[in-house]
Inverse folding.
């Protein structure tokens, strides 16, 4: 298992504490380290700050219904006005995940949601490419998980185009290889292509 985890880390060129090592010169080291404490809730692109928020729109005893949004905050350095775009909403008591990463090419949002109160334990793992100027969703990728799934980091790799995300799960994610309760998702050329991502469990 230790060798497999090391292989996963080398494959993705990312650093997590679970890997037990560092990748020298990786541009995502700081993003992943800060993601552990700040959970990647803010990111910057083209002078603008982008923030993700989760808001519960119901009150007990009604099960939670959470609205997930990406916001562009107005500032002196941002050439555009404040704006927001909605991600899929999430139902049920298991909290959703909502993380963000960005560079000059675009804004990447990772999320995990449950689409309804019923329907069994299934969850959706998703990633969206949002245009920093128009706030339009340029690309959306979604994968079904047979049980709970959560994200711990979303980061853009040193090449500036590969999106890598780590998380934990208790089921099987659509299209995954390997096995285990942790996973890494990698999308090469996330902002510039529609190349499918790969999911490796470990």
């Amino acid at each position: 298992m230790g060798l497999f985890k090391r292989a996963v880390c080398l494959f993705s060129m990312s650093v997590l504490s679970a890997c037990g090592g560092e990748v020298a010169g990786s541009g995502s080291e700081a993003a992943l380290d800060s993601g552990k404490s700040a959970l990647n809730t803010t990111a910057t692109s083209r002078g603008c700050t982008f923030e993700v928020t989760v808001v519960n729109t119901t009150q007990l005893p009604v099960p939670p219904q959470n609205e997930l949004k990406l916001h562009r905050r107005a500032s002196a350095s941002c050439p555009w006005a404040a704006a927001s775009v909605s991600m899929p909403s999430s139902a049920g008591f298991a909290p959703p995940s909502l993380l963000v990463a960005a560079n000059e090419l675009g804004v990447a949002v990772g999320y995990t949601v449950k689409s309804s109160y019923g329907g069994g334990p299934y969850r959706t793992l998703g990633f969206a490419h949002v245009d920093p100027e128009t706030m339009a969703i340029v690309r959306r990728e979604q994968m079904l998980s047979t049980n709970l799934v959560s994200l711990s980091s979303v980061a853009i790799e040193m090449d500036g185009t590969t999106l890598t995300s780590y998380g934990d799960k208790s089921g099987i994610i659509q299209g995954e290889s390997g096995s285990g309760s942790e996973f890494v998702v990698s999308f090469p050329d996330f902002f510039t292509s529609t190349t499918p991502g790969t999911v490796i469990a470990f």
Remarks:
- Residues 2-16+26-201 form one domain.
- Helices lie at 2-12, 29-38.
- The chain has one domain: 2-16+26-201.
